[in-house]
Amino acid sequence: MKTDMQQIRETQNEICQSQIEMMSRFKELLDGHALSPAQSAFSNSGRAEDSIPCSSAIKQEDASMYMVNGVNVLHLPAKTPYLFGLQLLDMLFTRAELSSSLLFKSTKSERGVLDPTKVSRIIDIMNKRYNQTEWNMATFVSKANQKCRDSECDS
In 22, 36, 97, 148, which residue has its Cα 20 to 30 A from 110's Cα atom? Predict the structure, then answer.
């Protein structure tokens, strides 16, 4: 029997995954490379390479996707997937962007959202480096939003 907190976490994960899928779909539509819903579904194989959202799941490895400021981010040292994701936030967004935004829109905050294309890229890269069982989307969103709030204090 699931506790209320477990049920809430599962619901949060489902919502986050849904938002990511919508962002990926939106990005593809903007790029003019829209895929059918069948193509955009996640693979169930459990391999990290297959758990990448639709834009990467078509197996067109684009090395430039993993390059940020001339660095292949897949090789960055990180103790946890969450610290890795926070490093990517620092690399892809300025301090000003972080301090004025959140990862996803919140009803509790007036802040805007970070660029969905860059956020989707971060999720794609995290999925490439880590298996989805190694990290939790709701936990990452929470940590990323806290980083955004903390950025405001640091500036």
Answer: 22
d(CA 125, CA 117): 12
Residue 92, C-beta contacts closer than 8 angstroms, at least 6 positions apart: 68, 118, 121, 122
pTM of the model: 0.58
Q: What pLDDT sits at residue 48?
A: 41
Residue among 2, 20, 33 at smallest CA distance from 137: 20
pLDDT digits (tens, 9 = 90+) for 61-110: 566 778 888 888 888 899 999 999 999 999 999 999 999 999 888 788 88
List Cβ neighbours of 45 (8 Å cut-off, separation of 6 or more).
Answer: 51
Q: Looking at the chain, list the stretches that DSSP marks H as alpha helix, in order from N- to C-terminal side.
A: 4-31, 37-40, 54-57, 81-92, 95-99, 116-129, 137-154
Cα 60 from chain centre: 19
CB 70 within 8 A of CB 91: no
Closest CA to 9 of 101, 142, 121, 122: 142
Q: Helix axis angle, 137-154 relative to 4-31, nearest 10°?
A: 80
